[in-house]
């Protein structure tokens, strides 16, 4: 996502790039380029995050994500893109407008017609890419009858709760439960201008950035703005944080793609695994003109933000009135116990991001900035409906909602502290969808940091 998937290149060039990236990672993964020893805008070194994630968080969050409450996510994948009419990419499931063989063209669209894609249909490589992306990007919607019956019971239980948020989208007839374990986030072939347009819209129009300052390495920009980081460093803390969160999310998604890449397909059986060359292309400091290490820094920064949110929301779940309902009392109790154990681990981390430094100015200005912050993020969540690949859209929406829920938590500390022990409250409430998104989004970040360690080992072997 966010770029092509080139598979060409010589071995010597690959080794050179791998060595450069290893050298950069050696700095980034131990003490952030040995310049500051810590991440910008917080007092935490990357090595501490690596150890904490590997030994405390990753094993438990993986186990929690496999439980029924967290493996099923209700999402509407049929909402139209509110910003442009046509995605123009064949990775949408059951796509009707892409260059596919005549036998697969829907009734009413004849080969050789004035359809703007008919010319492209003559190119066999694009046909092959279309077929692959169409297949890999499709969502597996298989659900057992037992699961479907359970969802009815879950909905009845959720409806009886006192909700703080509107549930219009969840109640849409197009919203459906998706089994996340059957739809892992990985390479789908979604790439090129379609994917870049989504990320371009996010960065260019929703990160408090003036149009005159171009994002580095943006292929859609007329020129590259050398003054980008001068501009970024001149922003207030809140706006810098916003950009880093989006950049960190982008880096995390790219890491998932590189770590779970389609390596080959033999007799219809795909083989998935880490692609060092793709990882190098996206994060090598030379190939990315210094952007790779910055992206990885922002991934760690995002991890800290969501980690902080988990530690802050613990009192909400510690109340006896809150359970993780699936109808199986024993499993529900085990799921809650494991979640509370993760919360205890998050609280034990001694170098949290201090969100009190945000929105700490005069009350009127802080309130206005917080609302602007919220609206920018809400707009990004709407852009996810423009992703032209069902599986990418699924994970994009989930991780965006997870981050949005984390921000909601960080902005609601007083409301959480004042929650009554034995009754629901209108002061602060999380829906099932928000809880599932929060845990799975953080699980994705935990996986990214773990995969980063795996790539470091692979790069050392290359050397």
TrEMBL record:
**Any one GO cellular component localisation term in the record:** endoplasmic reticulum membrane
UniProt signal peptide = 1-33
Q: What is its main location?
A: endoplasmic reticulum
Which terms does the record give in the GO molecular function aspect?
A: FAD binding; protein-disulfide reductase activity; thiol oxidase activity
Alphabetically list the UniProt keywords: Disulfide bond, Electron transport, Endoplasmic reticulum, FAD, Flavoprotein, Glycoprotein, Membrane, Oxidoreductase, Redox-active center, Signal, Transport
Active site per UniProt: 389 (nucleophile), 392
Q: Which positions form S-S bridges?
A: 90-95, 389-392
Query: GO annotations under biological process?
Result: cell redox homeostasis; endoplasmic reticulum to Golgi vesicle-mediated transport; extracellular matrix organization; glucose homeostasis; insulin processing; protein folding in endoplasmic reticulum
Query: Which residues are involved in binding FAD?
Result: 186, 188, 199, 247, 250, 282
Bilayer topology reads:
Peripheral membrane protein
What InterPro entries is this protein classified in? Answer: Ero1, ERO1-like_sf
Q: Where in the cell is it found?
A: Endoplasmic reticulum membrane
Per its Swiss-Prot or TrEMBL entry, what cofactor is needed?
Answer: FAD
Query: Family per UniProt?
Result: Belongs to the EROs family.
Name-wise, this protein is Endoplasmic reticulum oxidoreductase 1 beta
């Amino acid at each position: 996502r966010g770029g092509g998937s080139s598979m060409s290149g010589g071995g010597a060039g690959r080794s050179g790039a791998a060595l450069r990236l290893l050298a950069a990672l050696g700095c980034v993964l131990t003490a952030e380029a040995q310049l500051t020893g810590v991440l910008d805008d917080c007092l935490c070194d990357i090595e501490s995050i690596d150890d904490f994630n590997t030994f405390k968080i990753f094993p438990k969050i993986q186990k929690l994500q496999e439980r029924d409450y967290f493996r099923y996510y209700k999402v509407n994948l049929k909402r139209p893109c509110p910003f442009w009419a046509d995605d123009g990419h064949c990775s949408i499931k059951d796509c009707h407008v892409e260059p596919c063989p005549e036998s697969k063209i829907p009734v009413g669209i004849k080969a050789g017609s004035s359809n703007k894609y008919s010319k492209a249909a003559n190119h066999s490589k694009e046909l092959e890419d279309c077929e692959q992306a169409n297949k890999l990007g499709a969502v597996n919607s298989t659900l057992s009858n037992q699961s479907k019956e359970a969802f009815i019971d879950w909905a009845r239980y959720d409806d009886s709760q006192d909700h703080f948020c509107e549930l219009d989208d969840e109640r849409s007839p197009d919203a459906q439960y998706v089994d996340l374990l059957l739809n892992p986030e990985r390479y789908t072939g979604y790439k090129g201008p379609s994917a870049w347009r989504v990320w371009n819209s996010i960065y260019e129009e929703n990160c408090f950035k003036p149009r005159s300052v171009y994002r580095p390495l943006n292929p859609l920009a007329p020129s590259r703005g050398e003054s980008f980081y001068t501009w970024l460093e001149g922003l207030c803390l809140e706006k810098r944080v916003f950009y880093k969160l989006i950049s960190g999310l982008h880096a995390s998604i790219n890491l998932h793609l590189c770590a779970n890449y389609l390596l080959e397909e033999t007799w219809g059986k795909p083989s998935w695994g880490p692609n060092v060359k793709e990882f190098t292309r996206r994060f090598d400091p030379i190939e990315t003109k210094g952007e790779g290490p910055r992206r990885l820094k922002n991934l760690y920064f995002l991890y800290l933000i969501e980690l902080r949110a988990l530690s802050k929301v613990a009192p909400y779940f510690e109340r006896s009135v809150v359970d993780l309902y699936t109808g199986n009392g024993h499993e529900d109790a085990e799921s809650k116990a494991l979640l509370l154990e993760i919360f205890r681990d998050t609280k034990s981390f001694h170098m949290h991001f201090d969100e009190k430094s945000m929105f700490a100015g005069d009350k009127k200005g802080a309130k206005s900035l917080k609302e602007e912050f919220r609206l920018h993020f809400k707009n990004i969540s709407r852009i996810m409906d423009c992703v032209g690949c069902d599986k990418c859209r699924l994970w994009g929406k989930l991780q965006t909602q997870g981050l949005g829920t984390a921000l909601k938590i960080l902005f609601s500390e007083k409301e959480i502290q004042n929650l009554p022990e034995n009754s629901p409250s209108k002061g602060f409430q999380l829906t099932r969808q928000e809880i599932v998104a929060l845990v799975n989004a953080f699980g994705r970040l935990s996986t990214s940091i773990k995969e980063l360690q795996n790539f470091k080992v692979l790069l050392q072997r290359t050397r």
